[in-house]
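INTERNAL AUDIT FORM
Audit reference: QA-55
Scope: verify that the stored structure record matches its stored sequence.
Auditor: D.O.
Record contents follow.
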Amino acid sequence: MFKNFTKGITKRWMLNNVSVIVTIVILLVISSIFAVSYLYGNSVSQVVSSASNELTAVFPNHKTENSNSFITTSRSYVENFAYKEKMEVMVINSNGRVMMTSTGFTPDEEQEMPDFEQAVSSSEGFGEWSGNLNTGENVTAHTQIITNQSGTCVGAIRYVSSLEIVNEKVFTFSIIIIFAGLLIIALVVISGSYFIRSIVKPVRELSATAKKIAQGDFSSTIDKQYDDEIGELCDAVKDMAADLQAADQMKNDFISRVSHELRTPLTAIKGWAETMQLNEEGKIDRKTFEKGMNVIIKESGRLTSIVEELLDFSRLQSGRMVLMCEKLDILAELDETVYMLKERALTEGKHLLYDEPETVYPPVYGDRNRLKQVFLNIIDNALKYTPEGGVVAIQVIYDAKKEPDKIKVIITDTGCGIAPEDLPKVKEKFYKANQKVNGSGIGLAVADEIMNLHNGSLDIESGEGVGTTVTLTFPVYKEGELPALQQPEIIKI
């Protein structure tokens, strides 16, 4: 627990936020204490100043005629002093001896009076002092010198105010301020800790879940507790786990399909190869021998096709597919592909319809073998998913007025169609909507990537039970302008 506390988000929060807040609160507490001390001290000074101002009414300009007049006037002033409850007033003679006080108590003759000494030596005749008396009481004292007409000191009036009550009040307020500061810090730490826990706990759970997902446990999820950025991150991790699980399942299905696709022709080749060995002993006739050779040749071609498809996918995945581009007639490549598959369509009892346009279309720029591979893959799929008696129609469209920069090849079949939920995914790697038909599930993904590399597009429209239409769009080659073909992209698994 302590280890987790001293690192990560919690540590940064403690070092940054809490330390700043604590520093600010401490400064505010100290400033408040000094402010309270100043206000109370200033209030005492104001009382003393008020008393000193009244002294000018008794001794104009702080002067008197002589010592006798000073004593008489001072006695009257002390007896009628209006601030007896707040401070003590003393009458001091020119030798520094206290002659009378407003309290009536005998003064301590051993008590030093630094303010009187300061007043005597000051040109203004005023002195002040704060400190502790011999009794230990904390006081503040102000002394004003009274002179005769010639400027000679005849005595002084001293005001002594106790600071004990002020100090008690300052101490009380200081305790209250400190307690308030500690309370603020505690509330900040508690609320901040709760907030940090609301972040750290889900993050730790997310980290643990991510580790499980990294180890292949895609069923691991985390419950969303807050509808905020953390909640969005939980949803993202949950969606990622679901996508990885789906991708892993598709990969496993792909491996299973490819294994099956490879095993079937290999089994046929092996079986007929073993049968061919009997020919040396003259145990099979010529007709059986030719049939076996045809099967071996056909299945070998099928194996070659599967391997080439896997190699193409590997090249696209690693970005190693190289396009051998040139200016070419797209109709010639399409016509050659249709010719290759026409015999198959007849054998399977399907109608492959294509009328080569009589109009001369502008050329395109690309790799003739890769484009032929796209045609072969799309038409092969159309035949594969079209039942006996069905139709696969191929049409080439070029509108020099509306779309002079594009040539479209449209392949339409009357097959089983694609379900709406599968249609957005059919061009994804490993995805196979119809598991009943043979195929690896990567042919359409490879064809789509080849079209993208040629700056073209492969679009699919389909209705379940109606059929599928695939539209291949090729950019027209313009004389003197070499198209900037895209670099092969890496398809990540």
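Auditor finding: record pair retrieved intact. The domain at 322-475 is CATH 3.30.565.10 (Heat Shock Protein 90).
Action required: none
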